[in-house]
């Protein structure tokens, strides 16, 4: 009955117009026996791939730039994965089923090569990270409690102009709500929290280490702070403490929240730097979002942005989106019950740095005024990522796993990468 209702909501128009595949997806959502096929088991697998056999994932932010790449790589590389439950917030015009359909259809060929057997594993769950219990129906919550082995928290408000209250509500309260649900999961192997490399930057040190940093604001001070500054999009630096904007400020708080309240949940924090186009998967140069750094590169290369108050030798810490997704896949396999959390700086500056001048020169050769203050800050400061945990994780892999899940920044050829970046923006974002 549930399956038929979902089909009606989608007006019987789903991916490839193959209603049967999506009907099976929903009707089999309680049946782990459908997770691994005989053909899957006959394929040669790796230790990483084996870890995911028969497991189910619950992801927030799965329709975003990074979330989509993570889902694609899991489906493509780990055939034994059971289900991927996606928390999706419905809109006034679109149900969660139609949003899932749109994601698959309108992702610039990201899911090319996958078939209906892969998409049967995607199960949309209606909800909202800002709501108690994530706004999930009790029946669906019980299903998640029984089936989910891995949680990936990628949902966040990325708007650097969000008010402090808006950013706090999504980035901190949303994380707190998800942790509360996670503590009821019966067979949870890993909780992955997506943070940002820049939430740890300070004026005192240029090196950012893979450790927990003190938050810019403690929970006990939140009510008073929101009462005074919650309406502000640009709170004073005396409050932000060098975090530059409400996004970075609240991500720093949420990271500390995870590290201090996760209990015995096996937990890892991933800190990506500037996420750029793909380097390998599904092909070089894939991108489907105009983030600020892609905009700057495009504006410079087209002559729209001619003067920037920056240091040309500043290291611009880029990391390909597929490398972040692959590190997420790997990190979950290493999580263990502990009062400590594993932290991975998913960044290139400490391993294979590239300067702003080099990046722009390469980009321009192949092919913001309202952001000037922040461009000036990030364009005049460099931070070196200490990525020993990432390096150790990569070195522990077999040759087969390293090939399947590339995420080593030392492999990046910046000349080729930024040429492909330029082509990706021209091909997929600059249609006009």
TrEMBL record:
Pfam families membership: NAD_binding_4, Sterile
Domain called Fatty acyl-CoA reductase C-terminal: residue spans: 372-431
Keyword entries, A-Z: Lipid biosynthesis, Lipid metabolism, NADP, Oxidoreductase
Enzyme class: oxidoreductase
Superkingdom classification of source: Eukaryota
The EC number(s) this enzyme carries: 1.2.1.84
Keyword NADP in record: yes
The Thioester reductase (TE) domain, residue ranges: 59-328
GO cellular component: peroxisome
Official protein name in the record: Fatty acyl-CoA reductase
Organism from which the protein derives: Danaus plexippus plexippus
Organism taxonomic ancestry: Eukaryota, Metazoa, Ecdysozoa, Arthropoda, Hexapoda
């Amino acid at each position: 009955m549930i399956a038929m209702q979902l089909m009606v909501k989608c007006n019987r128009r789903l991916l490839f117009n193959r209603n049967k595949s999506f009907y099976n997806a929903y009707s089999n959502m309680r049946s782990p026996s459908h997770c691994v096929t005989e053909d899957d088991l006959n394929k040669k697998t790796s230790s990483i791939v084996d870890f995911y056999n028969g497991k189910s994932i619950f992801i927030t932010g799965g329709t975003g730039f990074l979330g989509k790449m993570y889902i694609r790589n899991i489906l493509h590389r780990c055939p034994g994965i059971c289900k991927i439950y996606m928390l999706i917030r419905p809109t006034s015009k679109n149900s969660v089923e139609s949003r899932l359909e749109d994601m698959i259809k309108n992702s610039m060929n990201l899911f090319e090569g996958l078939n209906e057997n892969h998409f049967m594993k995607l199960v949309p769950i209606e909800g909202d990270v800002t709501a108690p219990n994530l706004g999930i129906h009790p029946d669906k919550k019980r299903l998640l409690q029984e089936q989910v082995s891995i949680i990936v928290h990628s949902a966040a408000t990325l708007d650097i102009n969000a008010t402090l209250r808006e950013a706090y509500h999504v980035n901190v309260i949303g994380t707190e709500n998800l942790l509360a649900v996670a503590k009821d999961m019966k067979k949870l192997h890993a909780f992955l929290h997506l943070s940002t490399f820049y939430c740890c930057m300070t004026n005192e040190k240029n090196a950012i280490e893979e450790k927990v940093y003190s938050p810019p604001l403690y929970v006990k001070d939140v009510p008073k702070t929101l009462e005074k500054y919650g309406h502000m999009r640009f709170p004073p630096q005396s409050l932000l403490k060098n975090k530059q904007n409400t996004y970075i400020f609240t991500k720093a708080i949420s990271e500390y929240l995870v590290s201090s309240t996760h209990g015995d949940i096996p937990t890892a924090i991933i800190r990506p730097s500037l996420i750029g186009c793909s380097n390998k998967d599904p092909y070089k140069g894939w991108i489907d979002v105009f983030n600020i750094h892609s905009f700057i590169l495009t504006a410079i290369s087209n002559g729209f942005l001619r003067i920037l108050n920056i240091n040309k030798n500043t290291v611009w810490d880029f990391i390909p989106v597929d490398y972040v997704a692959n590190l997420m896949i790997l990190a979950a396999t290493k999580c263990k019950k502990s009062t400590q959390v594993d932290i991975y700086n998913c960044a290139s500056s400490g391993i294979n740095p590239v300067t702003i001048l080099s990046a722009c020169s390469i980009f321009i050769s192949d092919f913001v005024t309202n952001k000037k203050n922040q461009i000036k800050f990030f364009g005049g400061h460099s931070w070196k990522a200490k990525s020993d945990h990432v390096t150790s994780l990569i070195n522990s892999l077999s040759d087969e796993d390293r090939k399947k899940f590339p995420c080593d920044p030392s492999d990046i050829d910046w000349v080729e990468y930024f040429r492909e970046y330029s082509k990706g923006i021209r091909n997929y974002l600059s249609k006009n």
